[in-house]
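Carbamoyl phosphate synthase pyrimidine-specific large chain, Coemansia biformis. Tokens?
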Amino acid sequence: MAIVSTFEESLQKAIRSADPSFAGFAPLAGCMPETDAELDEALRNPTDRRLFHLAYAMLERNYSVERLHELTRIDRWFLYKLDNICAQHRALCDPHQTLQTLGRAQLEAAKRMGFSDAHIARLLSAAGKAAVGEDAVRSVRQSFGLRPFAKRIDTLAGEFPAPTNYLYTTYNASTDDVSFDEHGTMVLGSGVYRIGSSVEFDWCGVSAIRALRQLGHKTVMVNYNPETVSTDFDECDRLYFDELSYERVRDIYDMEQAGGVIVSVGGQLPQNIALRLHQNGMRVLGTSPEKIDAAEDRHRFSRILDEIGVDQPAWKELVSVEDAEKFAETVGFPVLVRPSYVLSGAAMNVAYDCESLRRHLQLASDVSPEHPVVVTKFILGARELDIDAVAYKGELVVHGVCEHIEDAGVHSGDASLVLPPATLPAGVMDRVREIGGRVAKAFEISGPFNMQIIMQPADDGAEPLLKVIECNLRASRSFPFVSKVTDTNFIDAATRAIVGEAVPAPRDLMQNADKWPYTAIKVPQFSWTRLAGADPFLGVEMASTGEVACFGRTPQEAYLVSLLAVNGFRLPQPGKAVYIGVDDLTEQRVAQKVARHFAQAGYPILTDCPETARLLGDAEVVKFDYADRRGMRDAVDASKIDLVINLAKRRPEDKANRDYAMRRMAVDFGIPLVNDQRCAEMLVDALEALPAGTATALYG
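Tokens:
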């Protein structure tokens, strides 16, 4: 959401806020219709891309307001406002317009229309003109004395004076509504909610603000999501409901003459601009942005781990597709393709052969073109550990260790987390703490950080190998969960470490964790029904949109109550059937265990092919015509399927795959779905651990 005093400036700010890769009201490169007929069709049918199709039609195809009105039925008032933006866009693209010839009035007009410095720089560089950088535009703007003004949001609709601390910035003003004499500490929020960045980071931001206020600091929150607590202006001394771009954060920092800025509690968005803020004279508090950059850069991070003697899977920085293929052949497939500076595992994929490797490499370079792509050995059959921690000047203050139920390869945001870990061998917890201490020291961390460690069984039966696969020098989405379970506010401790005041004494929260009287488990909540055609498959790229966490006396009890709390999940009703699918990577032992449990509980076991039926034992083969949606509904009802368990581990290449079709059928018809073999085994263990008679009541 964007708040400004004009439509044009507000719209452009809102577009940029939706995704930093959007310049504003402008065509999106590489995804625009090629013919007029295709463009007309795209304009007639509203989608999340229609705004960009409008920009393309107006700027590249010269569609008139009237023609667009006839195609879209959008009110002419809005279309004329968009045309105002386009007029300014064309003026900046003029072949004779350069940064040197750009006058104050022209630049001010562009800023009032909502053009960012980066967008102006790009337009001034168009049509073969000399390249112009964002900082050069900023320098010229400042030489003209042009800056945004801070205005108050009137929360009382003009009926009474409203001297709130609820602010926004705009170029369509001539005075500020506030004086800048507080010199507060800035906290950058989480920005837009999307898969991978949700209310967890808002909790972190609010907790940081509260800790700062307890320490006597004036606080300045910058965020633009109306659904957050951090945009409640009672939570901080000043709230700027504004962009989290480099340009706007620096503007606010300069106006407020802030004492510093915290970038490590709002997720990936603040992290991505941390280095630029630091390089341009802003005081970034806590861990150095140069260390943050080293951790985000896959190549540099891997090299530092080698230097400090922390093990990691075999890796190689991408030089060419041919080199990547040679590396994969040397270490053996599967391998993991990992771009840099992304959240939620965007474009991170497991490749099982050369063809999928080439496809995933192209996707990774498209998502993160300015940063290296690293290919690492993907370890099958391993378990993943999640470590959330706080350090001060390179020394651990507190840490928590969660164990994934799923095998390694499922994104931590989609995994079921167990705290305290239920199956770690003796000595592993101490080794994890030692690794955390080495990483904290190597990166000189002051503040929060999160690590993922692969626990790989040793061939000789010795203690498992521990290999670090990732480290983020910021709060993670599991910080609230770990804080609640351990009754220790990790962000409060992290904020004190960031500012170096009243830092708590180090303590080992995981000591004697095996003697805790409870276990907590966090399970994911998916929105597959809202994502038409999406594959309900767990992989290295995050897909969940929420989470549920519950306590239990045992891990099995905690898992069962957490799973039953997930929206849309229930156990099958008596007399109904269980539909089971597997692939060549599924462990036969697990598939047979799951089928045996439900068969003994009185449920008919159905499957989709004779080979699987032979594997499961007493199972009936039922095939569906997935192309016939209406007929399939009747067929599913007739088969009485009330639970689908798909244990396939290989991601399908297309929608013709039968495991994809099985999973999608479950989602589309509202049938509970279990799509991971470890989760299916944990569910069976939990049901079998129930007291006599309890399982029958749950099934009923």
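The radius of gyration is 27 Å.
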